Amino acid sequence: MKAIVIKAYGNDDVLNYADVERPEPKADEVLVKVHVAGVNPVDWKIRNGSGERLGLKLPIVLGGEIAGTIERIGDDVSGFKEDDAVYGIIRSGGFAEYAIAKIGDIAAKPRSLDFENTAAIPLGALTAWQALFDLAQISSGQRILITGASGGVGSLAVQLAKAKGAYVIGTASGRNEDF
């Protein structure tokens, strides 16, 4: 299968479009045929050397956000079946035709979204969720100021806070005023 692989850390010159072996799912994993992979700052940070600090071993197939369909199911997997449309965050491997995902790291793709929009959700939504609910512990009726409300994380934070019943005040740059 084809994948974007790094064999050394560095700038974007270390990115290689290469043939790699297709992975096989183990217990509690699925093989996902990747339709779309999200691109985030964490990808270039890993490429620049943070991968070593995160315990990733070279060569590395980059890509942590995926949306696709389940190609194969590993042992002890329940709740999913082949051809299910899914999305989620994986440790690495999303910039490939196929990627391994642990069952706890994926969810059913929302029917109202296409694969492209679905692949853009996982990391931003997780970041917003952790800030709002794990750290700030917002509740219905609470007032909250969200700076950068037009960005990826900010726009998801606005939606999550409103869904919780919070009174949301958002700020953004002038060019994003209409948004």
Protein model, in words:
With 179 residues, this protein is α+β, with helices and mostly antiparallel strands. The chain has four helices and ten strands, in the order βββαβββββααβαβ. The strands form three sheets. A five-stranded antiparallel beta sheet has the order 7-3-5-6-8. Strand 9, helix 4 (152-164) and strand 10 (167-170) form a beta-alpha-beta unit. The longest helix has 14 residues, at 122-135. It is globular and about 50 Å long. The mean pLDDT is 96.
Brief account:
The protein has 179 residues and is an alpha+beta fold. It is built from four helices and ten strands.
Provide tags for this entry.
179 residues, alpha+beta, globular
Regions with little confidence, pLDDT below 50 for 5+ residues = none
Q: Beta fraction of the residues?
A: 25-35%
Q: Whole-number average pLDDT?
A: 96
Strand order, main sheet: write it out: 7-3-5-6-8
The main sheet comes to: 5 strands, antiparallel
The CA-CA distance between the termini, in Å, is: 40 Å
What is the count of β-strands?
10
Radius of gyration: 18 Å
Percent of residues in helices comes to 25-40%
- How would you spell out the order of helices and strands? EEEHEEEEEHHEHE
Number of helical runs?
4
